[in-house]
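Quick one: co-fold with flavin mononucleotide.
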Amino acid sequence: MPDALKLLTTRRSFKAVELSGPGPSAAEIDTLLTIASRVPDHGKLTPWRFIVFEGDARRVAGEAIAAAFAAKYPDAKPDHVEAERGRLQRAPLVIAVVSRAAPHVKIPEWEQVLSAGAAAMSLVLAAHALGYGANWITEWYAYDRGVLDALGLKSHERIAGFVHIGRPPGPPEDRPRPPLNEIATRFTA
Ligand SMILES: Cc1cc2nc3c(=O)[nH]c(=O)nc-3n(C[C@H](O)[C@H](O)[C@H](O)COP(=O)(O)O)c2cc1C
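Sure, here it is.
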């Protein structure tokens, strides 16, 4: 099987906690972002952007997550708040894919959102191609306004995903995939 097809047929998510360091180098991160930004984009609007979290910046962002959590659940146990603080420290690299979809005279917002999804998917595949594992997750804090403000998102921007990237523990166990006869039909006249 050609390498590219093998790559596409073997991709699988890892849990964020399974992804260890060292993470991608600066040059590899550039490669990841370059590939992620090479996606179909109706109207060439670039309706997405990326935020890279590495090193201590993951802890600083985690402070905002913990603060939002503690505000939402004032009776939460300190251990739980601490776990929330560590959300972005599970993997050595986290890249947030931010959707910048907005009303446009010609291009439906839906298509701009889809383009952000494509960017996240390309990012995941590029990580796999470089030999890293990835996990595309959102979790509760992707939808918390306080967290989004702290991360610098404008009011119309949304998190398409926090893509966690690191070294996988080994080959992943696959999960059953949907049988093609259940998800694909042939249109007939
Ligand atoms: C937009 C989006 C958000 C996701 N958010 C989460 C999440 O918050 N938590 C989670 O466990 N999986 C989440 N997933 C699913 C995982 O990325 C992954 O697809 C799932 O674990 C199945 O593994 P697979 O990619 O190998 O099929 C999300 C997927 C997408 C597309």
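If it helps, Residues 12-13, 135-139, 161, 175 surround flavin mononucleotide (CB under 6 Å).
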